[in-house]
Amino acid sequence: MAILETSPNPAPNTRLPRTVWLLGWVSLFMDMSSELIHAVLPVYMTSVLGLSVVVVGLVEGLAEATASVLKAFSGALSDRLGKRKLLAVLGYGLSAATKPLFPLASGATEVIAARFIDRIGKGIRGAPRDALLADATPEPLRNAAYGLRQSMDTVGAFLGPLAAIGLLWWLHDRLRLLLWFGVLPAVVAVGILVFGVREPANLGARSAASRGKQPGVDKAPRFAVVRSLPRPYWGVVALAGVFTLARLSEAFLVLRGQQQGVPLLWIPLVTLLFSLVYAASAYPAGVLAQRYGRRVLLMSGMGVLLASMLLLALPGMPALWLGVALYGLHLGLTQGVFAAAVAAAAPQTLRGTAFGVYYLISGLLQLLAGFGAGWLWQDFGAPYAFGTGAALAAGALMLAAWQSRARFG
């Protein structure tokens, strides 16, 4: 089965299920809440709390790794229980509960703790949510479904920084008061999930049946059957892993903007710009992947990331803003497509586990990438950090080309 190559002929019925749209709205409001806070958090950590860039990179990497480890367990648990929504509600609810901790914090320890707890919530919800979306969507529509959810997620990521700019102006740069405004959208997101989203009624029956058919699965964790995931799945995971190493996190883009002289009031424009491009490109990318194949979109995204990293290594505002825009475009071209490739590669009854392992490996590599980028930035300068990202992006592009011939046909 070719995972990165999909049929060029989409199904006649292109209407996305109601669940896809509702999960999109959940993502929109939660990301609006998160990005309103995170648009100023890196600057707050370095300028107000006095943390080094290495520490910021390590905190970001550790937070994402924590989320990813929990995604692995929550994905396996959602397969076992057949209760995707329950775990998604738990994860989104925990993230919403952490939002007041940011404005209540009195020092670095509290901010870092709030960041970790928020990522724990993300880790719990991610794999069950993606598996729930796959369960509710026919295979021919999954590229578009993941693209739509990713696009709405990124619209929220666009609205958050936009609100942050207005609030910074209105509140005269009072960051603590600004952070309180991130609480309301998170509450709305949880409400939509709890009262609007319905889980497919036959999922629990399918999971129970599969446990009866697979020896030992009812007594052992789902990780006992990780080895049964097919080789094409591991090819997707390997490609995503190299790609993850190439990407500097959004926090480094914000810090690069500050380093290049962007005033505090306009710092959220960095997040705003790449989120806008991301939102505009994610859904079309899913549709194009269905038409032209996932390999084309993924390789295009890797080339765009390569260009973005090179531009961000250069001095000057034009290179900064173009590099940030291309960063958003590369996310739109790749993130939803990677998720669709994972869903296509995994058996339905192991889909939560497959997403969990995918997120686990990606998160551990994000930890390595965050620490490495912070160390390069602090000891050698930002151009070296972004230049290394460009070199790794070139490596990912070559690996994608090799895999498309040798493994994915």
Automatic annotation (TrEMBL):
<feature type="transmembrane region" description="Helical">
    <location>
        <begin position="320"/>
        <end position="345"/>
    </location>
</feature>
<feature type="transmembrane region" description="Helical">
    <location>
        <begin position="265"/>
        <end position="289"/>
    </location>
</feature>
<dbReference type="GO" id="GO:0022857">
    <property type="term" value="F:transmembrane transporter activity"/>
</dbReference>
<protein>
    <submittedName>
        <fullName>Putative Permease of the major facilitator superfamily</fullName>
    </submittedName>
</protein>
<feature type="transmembrane region" description="Helical">
    <location>
        <begin position="232"/>
        <end position="253"/>
    </location>
</feature>
<dbReference type="InterPro" id="IPR011701">
    <property type="entry name" value="MFS"/>
</dbReference>
<feature type="transmembrane region" description="Helical">
    <location>
        <begin position="296"/>
        <end position="314"/>
    </location>
</feature>
<keyword id="KW-0472">Membrane</keyword>
<keyword id="KW-0812">Transmembrane</keyword>
<feature type="transmembrane region" description="Helical">
    <location>
        <begin position="383"/>
        <end position="402"/>
    </location>
</feature>
<feature type="transmembrane region" description="Helical">
    <location>
        <begin position="152"/>
        <end position="171"/>
    </location>
</feature>
<keyword id="KW-1133">Transmembrane helix</keyword>
<dbReference type="Pfam" id="PF07690">
    <property type="entry name" value="MFS_1"/>
</dbReference>
<feature type="transmembrane region" description="Helical">
    <location>
        <begin position="357"/>
        <end position="377"/>
    </location>
</feature>
<feature type="transmembrane region" description="Helical">
    <location>
        <begin position="36"/>
        <end position="59"/>
    </location>
</feature>
<dbReference type="InterPro" id="IPR036259">
    <property type="entry name" value="MFS_trans_sf"/>
</dbReference>
<feature type="transmembrane region" description="Helical">
    <location>
        <begin position="177"/>
        <end position="197"/>
    </location>
</feature>
<feature type="domain" description="Major facilitator superfamily (MFS) profile">
    <location>
        <begin position="19"/>
        <end position="405"/>
    </location>
</feature>
<dbReference type="InterPro" id="IPR020846">
    <property type="entry name" value="MFS_dom"/>
</dbReference>
